[in-house]
Amino acid sequence: MFPASEILLAEAAGKTLDALEASSSPKGRSIARRVRDLKLILLADCLHGEVVRKSAIPSSLRAKYGLENLYVEDLPDFWRLLYTVVKSEGRRIIVVVEIVNHKNYSRWFPGRGR
Fold first, then answer.
1. How much is the mean pLDDT over the chain?
2. Mean pLDDT value across residues 53-82
3. CB of 38 within 8 A of CB of 80?
4. Is 48 exposed, middle or buried (0-12, 13-18, 19+ CB in 10 A)?
5. Which residue from 85, 84, 13, 100 is spatially nearest to 112, judged by alpha carbons?
6. Which residues pair with 98 in a beta bridge?
7. Average pLDDT for residues 52-68, to the nearest whole number?
8. What is the largest CA-CA distance in the chain?
9. What domains are defined for the chain?
10. Could you count the other beta carbons within 10 Å of the beta carbon of residue 22?
11. Which helix or strand (DSSP H or E) is residue 108 part of?
12. What HEC string does 2-60 produce?
């Protein structure tokens, strides 16, 4: 297991999470609850998610966030949480870059079979 010292949210992920938490939809609140529940899992093992091959990281995400690695966690209702692991001063830090619905995820990863 590879523990992380903290989890940060990129601006886009933070806005999406805020919208899901404020949602009147039970599905939205369920997705937000799962994101919160993942915090302890990811802090204990930052490599918990499915690894995206470096060559399969979408160029738009690579350019926007400067990604060297990318992991995916499944969320309810076919949503996905995308995160990267960075090192700073010898510590592992998780940065949640995007929380996306199936439609947006499929645009970045066409034919991924998920």
1. 94
2. 96
3. no
4. middle
5. 100
6. 82
7. 95
8. 41
9. 6-108 (3.30.2310.20)
10. 10
11. helix 102-108
12. CCCCEEEECHHHHHHHHHHHHCCCHHHHHHHHHHHHHHHHHHHCCCCCEEECHHHCCHH
Structure tokens, 97: 């870059």
| Distance separating alpha carbons of residues 112 and 78, to the nearest angstrom | 13
Question: For residue range 73-110, what is the model confidence (pLDDT) as tens digits?
Answer: 999 999 999 999 999 999 999 999 999 999 999 999 98
Q: How many CA atoms lie within 13 A of 52 on its CB side?
A: 26
Report the 10 Å Cβ neighbour count for 71.
Answer: 20
Q: What percent of the chain has pLDDT over 90?
A: 93
